[in-house]
Specification:
This protein is an alpha+beta fold. About 40% of the residues lie in helices and about 25% in strands. Helix 2 packs parallel to helix 6 and helix 6 packs across helix 9.
Length: about 220
């Protein structure tokens, strides 16, 4: 910023909410901007879902289930990604895209509960303005469903709204490109838009410090 250039940052743009405040001050001082890549906002299925929810009554509530299993080898825990102070843990490093998407569509956090927390798996419940959400994120290969294994898939994404599956497993390859194109065209996700997601994953990280054991 101080060299006269805008910045594009992959997620998470910061780990702590107050770090965004500091960057906003630098933006004011320099007249430049920081953008972050939250590519699920570019996914056609997610855009269609946001439009659908937006066209429904504002007081309608939804039951949402989100599962994302993306197995990683032992290298993961030995790299910076396994260092909570550097990556923010699984909920931040793996989950921020999904939490941002849920907040973007269903509104502000009302309640946040952590059900399970380990080096490989974290899960919980969220109550947003328009949705009650059960979520699970994991890098544990043993949790990969058999149907995914049988199809030769190396990861598993599942999002259901009131029992209806939202298919968004495909179409990820071009999302980064679309995100960068949007920034270059004068759009993009600004710092202030990222704050709610950063606040949420920061809260989950703090709940995780209670060392909730993995379920048997």
């Amino acid at each position: 910023l101080r060299i006269g250039a805008d910045v594009i940052c992959e997620k998470p743009v910061v780990l702590n909410p107050w770090n965004i405040d500091a960057l906003l001050e630098i933006e004011k001082e320099t007249g430049r901007h920081v953008y972050t890549i939250l590519q699920l906002r570019q996914h056609p299925a997610i855009l269609a879902l946001k439009e659908k929810i937006g066209n429904n009554p504002a007081d309608k509530k939804y039951a949402v289930d989100l599962t994302y299993i993306t197995p990683r080898g032992n290298w993961y825990q030995h790299s910076w990604k396994g260092d909570l102070a550097k990556s923010g843990g699984i909920a931040t490093n793996i989950g921020l895209h999904f939490f941002d998407m849920l907040l973007w569509i269903f509104g502000d956090v009302k309640e946040n509960q952590l059900a399970e927390n380990s080096d490989k798996t974290t899960s919980g419940k969220l109550l947003l303005a328009q949705a009650a959400i059960n979520w699970q994120l994991s890098i544990d290969e043993w949790l990969l469903p058999e149907m995914a294994k049988n199809r030769g898939e190396k990861s598993y994404r599942s999002l259901t709204i009131d029992g209806e599956t939202i298919e968004f497993s495909n179409g990820f390859d071009e999302l980064h490109t679309r995100s960068y194109e949007q920034v270059l065209a004068g759009g993009g996700v600004h710092l202030q838009e990222t704050l709610k997601g950063i606040e949420l994953v920061h809260s989950i990280r703090n709940l995780g410090q209670l060392a909730i054991p993995k379920k048997n």
